[in-house]
What we know:
Elements: E1 7-13, E2 34-39, E3 42-46, H1 51-59, E4 66-71, H2 76-79, E5 94-99, H3 109-116, E6 132-137, E7 143-147, E8 150-157, E9 163-170, E10 173-178, H4 190-196, E11 201-205, H5 224-233, E12 238-242, H6 250-263, E13 268-269, E14 275-276
Parallel strand pairs: 3-4, 4-5, 5-6, 10-11, 11-12, 12-13
Antiparallel strand pairs: 1-2, 1-14, 2-3, 7-8, 8-9, 9-10
Amino acid sequence: MPDSDDFFVKFWGVRGSIACPGPETARYGGNTSTLQIRCGDHMLIFDAGTGLRYLGNELAKHGPVDTDIFLTHTHFDHICGVPFFVPLFIPANKIRIWAGHLGPAKLTIKQVLEDMMITPLFPVPPEIFGADVSYNDFSAGETLTPRPGVTLRTTELNHPDNATGYRIDFAGKSICYLTDTQHVIDQPDQKILELVEGADLMIYDSTYTDKEFPARSDWGHSTWQEGVRLANAANVKTFVVFHHDPDHTDGFMDRVAKDVEKARPGSVVAQEGMVLHP
């Protein structure tokens, strides 16, 4: 039987919108969204922000890589790490890239990445990749079984150009990853509530505070307070604040950490390098 101790998430990028390295963001991190989730012998990657470069450099030190990259969506802060992911250039590796949000636009993930890696935006196309790379499109709402014993339930998220939320179930435990998504005040997202019901970890788009939100209510993001409300309503064990606004310094995030701990004890504010077990 799989051991739940071998199920964990490591954060390689926790920031939203644009990378913001520097002394004011050094503790929480300035790289954009990248998660590594270990499910026993299997490794899954969620999103391909600037943190993907650092993850790739580490993976390249340890031999052949066989992994899946699941994208929430294809805004640049979530895919800009793809051309700098070293394992894509190594012939012994097998990498499967997945997206569930492009159907309404009548696009494929292969087309989107080809359009990103095209002159004069980028000097080389995806054809330069040496690894065995496959491109896989699905529709948000489907349930996937990418590896034995690993189940991914998915749902649509409310975000410009669409996005996909994920629930990863393994060895009797669950991790939910929900970014980028925009909530409606006083109208909890029923699709999200259904997906995260009883989850062990819920990583949620907490770009803003409720105080900031009215001026940004159509920007495609949510608040840590809405994350608390969803976690409470769905009986989530641990809520994780994620997708930090690039203008939120370490000092600001320290205040968020204190406020969210007061609102829902045991909650966590994601930091680069952090490892969490469900």
